[in-house]
Write a structure and sequence with these properties.
- By secondary structure, this protein is of the alpha+beta class.
- It contains eight helices and 15 strands.
Length: 296
């Protein structure tokens, strides 16, 4: 019988299947949506990929929302390492680290205590091979996330998009477009977006307070620069997609995924492009050689 995978529940390590949240003790998180999180993966025998960046973003998100955390980065790191060691025989895992608001002072929305920490550990599920081989399609959805710079648990826009425009366009996922002009591309439901222009330059939307500072977004830009690929952070407009040669998205758990169609607009020749494949190879090589000592 396989060993159970363990998760972390506000001070205790429990089997993932038994993880639960006491609603009455977490009213700010459960009923008021006062929660932040990050999703990261393990690789190379239990190493957590880009862990320090995930921790930094969690602390930044907490600061933005004035959320008091129950411990510092060092203690969080210790809890994560202990959890990973408990699951050492489980293979590559997905770790979803969440701080939830806890209880309020009676009659207020002021937290009565630091946020509660939960870490859900589960087997890592890879995207289908055909995504990387053939590319995917995205459907546009007019939406900008609340508190865009914060990795919050409010994914209602993504859920609605996947039940509406994604199905209508027979797409695989959704691409958020700014409500202000219905033309500026922001980000995907759970990923950062990149395009390749006619000059073979790699472009991605800027960090202008309207999108999340994705950890794999930053890594993608760093890898491109290190390999002499011209990059720019600048607005990308929906109306200019007919001029775009390639498109892909990047995320912590799926790496580089080619995008070959947005709504009815075919991107380039409708197949994963040369630079997209190159970026995917660079990401794969980086992960294969990754050690926390060399790559904080």
């Amino acid at each position: 019988m396989p060993k159970p995978i363990f998760s972390y529940s506000n001070g205790e390590f429990v089997p993932t299947k038994e993880l639960s949240i006491n609603v009455s003790q977490d009213m700010l998180g459960t009923f008021r949506g006062y929660r932040i999180f990050t999703s990261c993966r393990t690789l190379n025998k239990g190493m957590v990929f880009r862990l320090e960046k995930h921790i930094e973003r969690l602390i930044h998100s907490a600061s933005q929302l004035k959320m008091q955390l129950p411990h510092d980065a060092s203690k969080l790191r210790e809890i994560i390492f202990t959890l990973v060691n408990k699951n050492s025989s489980a293979g590559d895992m997905l770790l979803q680290i969440m701080y939830s608001g806890g209880s309020p002072i009676p009659g207020t929305m002021v937290p009565n205590e630091p946020a509660h920490l939960y870490i859900v550990a589960s087997p890592l599920t890879s995207a289908p091979d055909h995504w990387y081989r053939n590319g995917i399609s995205l459907a546009t959805f007019i939406y900008q996330r609340e508190w865009p710079e914060v990795k919050s648990l409010s994914y209602i826009g993504a859920v609605v998009a996947n039940q509406t425009v994604v199905q209508h366009q027979n797409a695989d996922d959704a691409l958020f477009v700014s409500p202000s002009d219905k033309d500026t591309i922001l980000e995907g439901t759970t990923f950062s977006i990149f395009v390749v222009d006619q000059h073979n330059h790699l472009l991605t939307p800027p960090l202008d307070g309207k999108i999340l500072d994705g950890i794999t977004r930053k890594l993608t830009l760093d890898l491109a620069k290190a390999n002499h690929i011209q990059v720019a952070e600048k607005p990308i407009m929906l109306t200019t997609l007919p001029l775009i040669k390639e498109m892909f998205f990047a995320s912590s758990t799926r790496n580089v995924v080619p995008v070959v169609r947005v709504d009815s607009q075919i991107i380039g020749n409708g197949k994963p492009g040369r630079l997209t494949k190159h970026m995917g190879s660079l990401m794969q090589s980086y992960q294969e050689s990754y050690t926390s000592q060399h790559h904080p």
